[in-house]
Design goal:
This protein is an alpha+beta fold and 494 residues long. It has 15 helices and 18 strands. The protein folds into three domains: 167 residues, FAD/NAD(P)-binding domain; 171 residues, D-Amino Acid Oxidase, subunit A, domain 2 (D-Amino Acid Oxidase, Chain A, domain 2, 2-Layer Sandwich), CATH 3.30.9; 77 residues, no CATH class.
Length: 494
Amino acid sequence: MSLSAIEKRRATLDALTREPLDILVIGGGIVGAGIARDAAMRGLKTGLIERRDFASGTSSRSSRLLHGGMRYLAQGRLGLVREASLEKRILHGIAPHLAGPLPFIFPTYSGSGWPLWKLRIGVKIYDLLCGKNLGKSCGLSKAKTLDAAPQLNPDGLTGAVRYFDGFTNDARLVLDTLRSAAAHGATLLNYCQFENAARTQAGWRCEAADQTNGQTYSLPAQAVVNATGPWADGLPHSGVHLRLTKGIHLVMERSRLPVAEAIVLTEGKRILFVIPWGRRIILGTTDTDYSGSLDDIQACPEDIAYLLGVVNHFFPRAKLFAADIISSWAGVRPLLADPNGSASDISRAHEIKNPELNWWDVAGGKLTTYRLMAEQTVDRITKATGLAAQHCRTASEPLLKAADEFSGLLPPEFGREAVAHYCAQEWALHLDDVMIRRTSWHYYFPDAPRKAEIAAGWMAEFLGWSPAERESELVRYRAVVSKSRDEEILSQTN
């Protein structure tokens, strides 16, 4: 790192260790980011540490949807649907550059278990639960459905419903939430590993290791929040019990399946999507139980074959193959443990637990409800600790004072200026930080490996890398992304 980057990191560590924090958040995903923003906006002295890069776990591997959940409506979970539906409207208000309205076409087929009459009633209830949805739902005849999605399989098609949810950029939502938290005084540090914590008279003393220099630091805080997502039940002092499910997503050229709006596909109880994303489409997601390593989550051949099989059934003329895949991502959902039911049946509700004095676990939930989870968490902490705090303002105050060219639903233009911004203003330390999470260039561009070489040259200049360090970063990037552009895995599915 350059001297300025090292000095900035030292200053951050000094702020985290010099005086006790009111709240220390462990975990730099969407939930941790939301808690840090909420707490800082209420005037609390707030710190956040993340063992890898911000949004490097589940929060950059979602379907990129802000939704109430049509599946949850079918399951009768009206409270969960309304909660999420109201939150998607709030996010559209505070971050319009990251919460765009997205129309969905949900086709129905005879004998599928999703009858058209029931869906027509369902989308009307969906609109009512939203209060005021991002667009008005309607029913479509078979002819109008095929007009809207000409490549759909017409055999057995009975019609469709059209409804609205939101589309986001999940990693950008995390980063802009953190930018807002920092603007309100929160102290944030990525690549800082939580090791353990001990109770003190004043609260907690946490041990954390800086991943850039290997040194361990002591961070005092009155209250600690475990917001580590899939890792939550592995932290010392945690009282969380999770059931993890895996989802994969595939990215292809939109010309291979030129949909104008998102399409809902069903396979039994499962719901999958074809989502337009600029010149690309996103296919996903699978929903299967997962018990493997959290540091080695892959889109395996079986997942890819399953997903392509479902899409090709609904769009037989597309004839999509693994060779069409530009990139993929896979992640796990940290759902509250429930041994009963299939992975698709598990509730996406969240839970805030207080297993020890001034230690809080936040688990479950979904991307759409992160702001509400944060508000409820800070409410409970301030009530339990007596910390003087202002009222929550996260539902009304925009994430950014003004949208900028470096954050949006689509990747920014590839260029030196963007890389300079991420290095100087958004905590980027490694090449994959920029290529994957801050820009999605890796997922979007077929020539991402070549762009990575160019970006590495710019980062070497901005962060003071030597030629050997630049080459090391390229090696690291290739290792990190090999699972999302693995030719051997893709070839096995053809």
